[in-house]
Amino acid sequence: MITGADPRQVRTAVVMKNGQRAATLTREDDAITFRYEGDYLGSSGPAVATTLPLTETPRITRGGAVPAYFANLLPEGRRLTALRHAVKTSADDELSLLLAVGSDPVGDVQVVAGDAPAGSQDGPPEPDQAEVADFATIDFDDLLAGAGIGDPAALAGVQDKVSGRMLTLPLSHGGRRHFLKFEVPEFPRVVDNEAYFLTLARRLRHPVTRARVVHDRVGRAGLLVTRFDREVGPSGQVRALAVEDAAQLLDIHPAQKYTVTSEAIATRIGAVCAARPVALRAVLQQLLFAWLTGNGDLHAKNISVLASGAEWRVAPIYDVPSTAAYGDSTAALPLAGRRANLSLRAFQEFADAVGLPARAATATIAEVLSATEPAIAEVENGPDWLETRARRDLLRVLRRRRRDLGG
Hints:
By secondary structure, the protein is of the alpha+beta class. The chain has helices at 38-41, 68-71, 77-87, 94-101, 140-147, 161-165, 190-201, 246-249, 262-272, 276-293, 344-354, 358-372, 374-380, 388-404; strands at residues 12-17, 20-28, 31-36, 59-62, 109-113, 130-131, 167-173, 176-182, 211-215, 221-226, 230-232, 238-240, 242-245, 304-307, 312-314. It folds into three domains: 7-99, no CATH class; 130-226, Phosphorylase Kinase, domain 1 (2-Layer Sandwich), CATH 3.30.200; 239-404, Phosphatidylinositol 3-kinase Catalytic Subunit, Chain A, Domain 5, CATH 1.10.1070. It has 14 helices and 15 strands. The longest helix has 18 residues, at 276-293. It is globular.
């Protein structure tokens, strides 16, 4: 529920970085001005975002827009539509929408209304979200009704295609913070679909977000995803970690998440990460895994970097449902100039374009082919979440793509 001040009436919002007051977002006529505070500039604190360097010069955006970093903290799809209705504002009033959901977004930045203390606070603010002790005792409908659309967690990774139509809510369970993804009628058994491919991804030499299927008291399934941007200390204190998705790194708005190239994403991620070759391999790894599992929704918001200290690294893999099971068989992003019929040569051209040595690219391709090899037999012999036609279509896609890559 939206509580407190009407977001539309808030002139200045406070931007907190890792619990410390760092900057403001101020409405000025038809513009939004982002400005660092003097005390923060005088401290040793990091920049709010990679695209918002520490400087006394303000960043001004017009037409109701906020800088792209903040726009990418907003939910998308169904949640954004419902949020606009709840706030009673238009899609281009991004500051009001951000204030309605921005106190516990992904990462270590919070946007809050009113006067925030100039000093630091321990950990991210406590979000106004559900605490679930036992899923078998609750009804998912009650969770959705109780949360409303104005809950304070802005969910990154909720996109168009399959992921954009999924309903996702933040909650606490077992002393940790999570996202709970619900089933939607357009994509039958998508919860089990994603759970399977997350399990398959664990065969890769890269971290994968922790997730498991839970059921409510009437047997409905949900995917409980543990937030990788929240660490819990020995005393139970929650620590927020900095996260930026590729759209934020590239300084583009969410609507552009399908318009950039795979090469642009890899190049930018490689530039910000401490170990560039490792980062480039991780990006290639995720592009290959998406292609070989029929995931056509790996776009600029579905690959991120994470910082637990001063150095960035590629974040754990997340949002990996096979969209080919629902008839979506093209890649979300162009790679080597194409979105369909990606061949071994296309991935080799990608590696060459971003500066990943051929030897490393060959090893990565072999790794992902090996990791995804069980999928053919496992999809063919089950699982029960695939209807007969969907299974047949998915198998055709998986087999062809393995052949095209030499698997």
